[in-house]
Automatic annotation (TrEMBL):
<dbReference type="Pfam" id="PF07702">
    <property type="entry name" value="UTRA"/>
</dbReference>
<dbReference type="InterPro" id="IPR036388">
    <property type="entry name" value="WH-like_DNA-bd_sf"/>
</dbReference>
<dbReference type="InterPro" id="IPR000524">
    <property type="entry name" value="Tscrpt_reg_HTH_GntR"/>
</dbReference>
<dbReference type="GO" id="GO:0003677">
    <property type="term" value="F:DNA binding"/>
</dbReference>
<dbReference type="InterPro" id="IPR028978">
    <property type="entry name" value="Chorismate_lyase_/UTRA_dom_sf"/>
</dbReference>
<protein>
    <submittedName>
        <fullName>Histidine utilization repressor</fullName>
    </submittedName>
</protein>
<dbReference type="InterPro" id="IPR036390">
    <property type="entry name" value="WH_DNA-bd_sf"/>
</dbReference>
<dbReference type="InterPro" id="IPR050679">
    <property type="entry name" value="Bact_HTH_transcr_reg"/>
</dbReference>
<feature type="domain" description="HTH gntR-type">
    <location>
        <begin position="2"/>
        <end position="70"/>
    </location>
</feature>
<dbReference type="Pfam" id="PF00392">
    <property type="entry name" value="GntR"/>
</dbReference>
<dbReference type="InterPro" id="IPR011663">
    <property type="entry name" value="UTRA"/>
</dbReference>
<keyword id="KW-0238">DNA-binding</keyword>
<keyword id="KW-0805">Transcription regulation</keyword>
<dbReference type="GO" id="GO:0003700">
    <property type="term" value="F:DNA-binding transcription factor activity"/>
</dbReference>
<dbReference type="GO" id="GO:0045892">
    <property type="term" value="P:negative regulation of DNA-templated transcription"/>
</dbReference>
<keyword id="KW-0804">Transcription</keyword>
Length: 243
């Protein structure tokens, strides 16, 4: 990192922390900032990308740079018990979900292996976009066993799907497992989240089991990396089990 890049990064970080940039959440244009700091667009973008990597700012495709809002404190251990909508509301956010795509597919070799079923098993593939205060932060792919949960075509997908499954199908989640990796956004997911292809992201793989121990759902989630803080509580006297 050059001295000039560090100087620009430090100056912007100070102004952001003091909320002195135009009194709004949007940063001035790159042209304005480069002229103000007397530097090239290349050097400026290097400083902006460093702030982006730290989660201080984020970029929206064709809209510019914004100050990152407060993060959702995300505990995977409660995800199966409390819906995204309620979880976000409890932390003061205004959450929203929209249906991006719903289609019927069959399990390929990967899905058959991860869901412990057979190739060709009918599945629902449901894609949703999750929002916090009108900002799209999560692209959700859900693969659900169509033979176990028939008629999901007519279910409202903008609310809590698991609550619907409990209320309408009597389905009880007995346990779940998940893994998280750091990745980048593929083109479709980036477009849906108003981000640039290749932007940093957190990727979750998550499986849900019913009372019989059958995997009825497998999710692939792409989160904006600056939208959540992953937290997990452990009690030394009584371990807190994930689900």
């Amino acid at each position: 990192m050059s001295t000039q890049t560090q100087r620009i990064k430090s100056a912007l970080l100070k102004e952001i922390s003091e909320l002195q940039i135009d009194g709004s959440q949007k940063l001035p244009s790159e042209r304005h900032l480069s002229e103000r700091f007397g530097t090239t667009r290349v050097t400026l973008r290097e400083a902006l990308r460093l702030l982006e990597a730290d989660g201080i700012i984020y970029r929206e495709n064709r809209r510019g740079w914004f100050i990152t809002p407060p993060r959702l404190h995300y505990d995977p251990s409660v995800h199966a018990r409390i819906s995204f909508m309620n979880y976000a509301q409890q932390q003061g956010f205004i959450p929203k979900s929209t249906l991006y795509q719903f289609k019927h597919i069959v399990a390929d070799e990967f899905l058959a292996a991860v869901m412990n079923t057979v190739v060709g098993k009918p599945l629902y593939h449901i894609c949703r976009i999750r929002y916090l205060d009108e900002r799209p932060v999560l692209f959700e792919n859900m693969m659900i066993r169509a033979d176990l949960l028939k008629g999901l075509d007519n279910v409202d997908m903008t609310g809590s799907l698991h609550q619907k499954l409990r209320d309408d199908y009597g389905l009880i989640i007995s346990r779940a497992d998940f893994e998280m990796t750091v990745t980048t956004l593929p083109k479709e997911e980036a477009t849906a989240l108003n981000a640039l292809e290749g932007a940093a992201a957190l990727k979750f793989h998550r499986r849900y089991f019913n009372e019989d121990g059958t995997i009825f759902e497998f999710d692939i989630e792409f989160w904006r990396h600056d939208a959540i803080t992953v937290a997990y509580e452990y009690n030394n006297n009584q371990p807190v089990r994930p689900f």
